[in-house]
Amino acid sequence: MNDILQTPIEYLKGVGPSRGEMLRKELNIHRYGDLLTLFPNRYIDRTRYYKINELQAGNTEVQIIGKIIHLKTIEQSKGRGRLVATFVDETGEMELVWFQGQKWIRESLKLNTPYVAFGKVTSFSSQFNMAHPELELLEEHKQSLRSAMQPVYPSTEKLTQKGISNRTINKMMQQLFVETQARFTESLPPNLLEELKLIPKNAALFNIHFPKSQELLAKAQFRLKFEELFFIQLQLITKNLIRKHKIKGHPFEKVGEHFNTFYQHHLPFELTNAQKRVIKEIRNDLGSKAQMNRLLQGDVGSGKTIVALLCMLMALDNGFQSCLMAPTEILATQHFNGLSELAKELNINIKLLTGSTKTSERKIIHEALEKGELHILIGTHALLEDKVQFHNLGLAIIDEQHRFGVEQRSKLWKKNDIPPHVLVMTATPIPRTLAMSMYGDLDISVIDELPPGRKPIQTVHRYDSNRLKVWKFLKDEIAKGRQIYIVYPLINESEKMDYKDLMDGYESISRDFPLPQYSVSIVHGQMKPAEKDEEMRRFAAGKTNIMVATTVIEVGVNVPNASVMVIESAERFGLSQLHQLRGRVGRGAEQSYCILMTGHKLSNDSKIRLETMCKTNDGFEIAEVDLKLRGPGDIMGTQQSGVLNLQIADLVRDRDILQLARHEAIKLLKKDPAMTLPEHQTLRMIFMEMSKRKNIWNYIS
Ligand code: ADP
Ligand code: MG
User: Fold this and answer.
1) What is the pLDDT of residue 145?
2) 3-state secondary structure 403-459
């Protein structure tokens, strides 16, 4: 390793204690090595020199070679003034202007000497001018290490205030390269460099900070991005391999009576090929001696529930209990009802445990669970309470896990010595490569096929001003016997405004759809669980025509006769949320509709979201757009954001490099799993160092 990179940053010439403190606080730069990996956000092209007569009002940053022929101070009110220099080249003249530090600048400027002026150009009363230009003597400019592509470093307001400008950082970087003699340990094995035509580490670091050309900059970026992603993949894959070897699971050796009986006699429909494939994948895992950690992805309505049931039957046939945890009471109840119905001929003991389960019922459940008489327990967070002790939990299924924190997941299986198999089900469609790098230690199964006979949902965008027409449409649908959801944003349950909108909306809907011809339900987070359930039940049973609700119905609710989803203030929802909401309809045989209501004022992002929704029903396509709009951190919900603190790569933009890195990491570990070959020595050292430092991945074991 380069020991010098461990040197505290204040020792770098030109930094010192107070700037060192600023760098630590503002940019988390503690040592030389941290500065070295402070990578530029962007580059300004300084290969081009403009002539004054080429300037245009819209120019951003330009550089011009010229001379100052005249200096004057123009007084404004109360001693405030500006310093104006007349700057000329052979094609014309313009003004350089300073509002601050005029005295010092005035003294340091040389007249009639060639300068390079760099900055933003504006035009003012037919005269071009540049405020607070970066000025450099042409002589010095020619010699400076600064290259044609000038890096722009991440910065903060505080840093700029304290005079640590981009140029200062650039100078520190130059000093760093001087003191370290620009010799850095090569971190990738030689054959990899050769095979992928990667430039050496030294050249990459040099060109990322002082690019000699566009071409070398691109090579430097590629090499450093690859390296970053490669090491992450090494960690993820190693971790997965270790888990498979070390973490014992309960082998479910047989496929037994319950599974077979159900599969042969009680399946309510033929499984799709995707469902069959996924069940096979899971069965393979469960039969092995290692713990299963699998993510089951499937778009809304793809039929994950039946897969869950079949897995739980496998557990039962092997003498184990299983549980299914859902994020809300409504969902847990729905799972309970649905699964009980499916399994009614099987004579197995299924119970529901939620926050509103009565104490007496709770006691019965706890006891039966500990004795092993209870086979399947379905519930909410209530399953995580200490009192809930399984006799032998063999399989834990978590529905819609993006609602659960990582810690909560692990809480479930700390209760046993040998952890249960874990199946996480999610309808949040994450592009596969991204999923692999975020949940790298989970295996992934995808249900990529919807059950047959589904008609694609028709989605339209309507302005509030067209509400009358929309209401007419709803009445026609109700006349055909269909049911309708109308959803209001209540993103934060405590927000009074949202709540008021919802209640106002409910009132006006009740007026426009009056009794006795129509009946309207309402469900929101401030209602008691029992009331909510009662309303849901009435709607599900077809007793009400319209369900006015907040996003509590977002996940999983299943009422096949509901064929229209109206989303109010649709511009306030994120894409994946819109997609989830839409997934509540289109579950029956009838044509379904989704109507996105908004006002006329829409941001660009909102427009893209609405257009995307109208254009496609494909969850993965929607996820791609969402990723582009929001970045990967958000898509997982706040729990996972920041998990990947990448320095240079971007999981979305650099997906191809990610794939390459993953491919190469797998190849290398196949050949040399412990990285013990001589040519992998440095690799191994860096790997160990990294694993020690950021053990961000162990959120599953
Ligand atoms: P999700 O993946 O969103 O949880 P569900 O498991 O709730 O989806 O299934 C959605 C609907 O599709 C349910 O009504 C279910 O009975 C039905 N379904 C699931 N699989 C099939 C299939 N293979 N053929 C027909 N209908 C199916
Ligand atoms: Mg579901």
Assistant:
1) 58
2) HCCHHHHHHHHCCCCCCCEEEEEECCCCCHHHHHHHCCCCEEEEECCCCCCCCCCEE
What is the Å distance from ligand 2's center to 428 Cα?
11
Same domain, 470 and 521: yes
Mutate to test the pocket of ligand 1, among 263, 269, 555, 587 (most ligand atoms within 8 A of CB): 269
Give the domain CATH number at 416. Answer: 3.40.50.300
Measure 610 CA to ligand 2 centroid, in angstroms.
24
Is the distance from CB of 392 to CB of 376 less than 8 angstroms? no
> From the CA of 477, how far away is ligand 1's center (Å)?
24
The whole-model pTM stands at: 0.62
Of the ligands numbered here, which is closest to the C-alpha atom of 584?
Answer: 1
User: What is the CA(276)–ligand 1 centre distance, in A?
Assistant: 13
Beta strands in 77-229 (DSSP E): 81-89, 92-98, 114-124, 127-131, 134-137, 149-152
Ligand nearest to the CA of 451: 1
Q: Are residues 378 and 473 in the same domain?
A: no
Ligand showing the shortest atom-to-Cα distance for residue 326:
2
Pocket lining: 99 vs ligand 1, CB cutoff 6 Å:
no
pLDDT tens-digit map of 168-204: 999 999 999 999 988 898 999 999 999 999 999 999 9
Q: Are residues 528 and 562 in the same domain?
A: yes
**Residue 573, in any domain of the structure:** yes
- The pLDDT value given to residue 440: 59
| Whether residue 206 is found in the same domain as residue 274 | no
Span 559-597, pLDDT tens digits: 889 999 999 999 988 888 898 889 889 888 889 999 999
User: What's the pLDDT at 39?
Assistant: 94
* Residue 270 structural domain: 257-447
In 317-387, at which residue ranges do the beta strands (DSSP E only) sit?
Answer: 321-325, 350-353, 376-379
- Does residue 51 fall inside a structural domain? no
Overall average pLDDT of the 483-510 stretch:
83
429 Cβ inside 6 Å of ligand 1 = no
